[in-house]
Amino acid sequence: MSHSSEAEIFKVIKSVSYPNNKSKHLFQMSKVLYNDFGGEVPQEIDDLQKLPGVGRKTANVIASVLFNKPVIAVDTHVFRVAKRLGLSSAKDVLGVELDLTANIPQEKRATAHHWLILHGRYTCKARNPQCNTCGLRPYCKFYSEQQAI
């Protein structure tokens, strides 16, 4: 890919969301990977975040999935579910990540991450949470607070 043009990359990924930004980032990323990392994807989160278009969440996903690192990527679903269940009272993504990391054993983090995402997508939805069918209702801070209203 380091020998491809941005336009060539765009043609390959044009069906994904935000192809203009992503083709630009992938083009720049391929140069950084080739020049700074010998063509290898770095394993450390700090190094991953040096890649164009890679923030903390993406770096954590790569570290977890590619390199089996015991990290948790906090997206909107993980953030919402962690807050509603009372797993974190942090006000920002990094705080939620730190709380979850401190309280979920290393060997369970990858699985917990996926469970939190799926629960947030299909049950604990942002606008219309399905509390009546949720098996976590007895443990849920959000549900308890809603019942008190």
UniProtKB/TrEMBL annotation:
InterPro entries per UniProt: DNA_glycosylase, Endonuclease-III-like_CS2, Endonuclease3_FeS-loop_motif, HhH-GPD_domain, HhH_base_excis_C, HhH_motif
Domain HhH-GPD: 1-122
A single BP term in Gene Ontology: base-excision repair, AP site formation
Gene3D superfamilies: Helix-hairpin-Helix base-excision DNA repair enzymes (C-terminal) (1.10.1670.10)
EC id: 4.2.99.18
GO MF, one annotated term: DNA binding
Main EC class the enzyme belongs to: lyase
UniProtKB keywords: 4Fe-4S, DNA damage, DNA repair, Endonuclease, Glycosidase, Hydrolase, Iron, Iron-sulfur, Lyase, Metal-binding, Nuclease
Pfam families linked: HHH, HhH-GPD
UniProt cofactor(s): [4Fe-4S] cluster
Coiled-coil parts of chain: none
Family: Belongs to the Nth/MutY family.
Protein name: Endonuclease III
Lineage summary: unclassified sequences, metagenomes, ecological metagenomes
Gene: nth_32
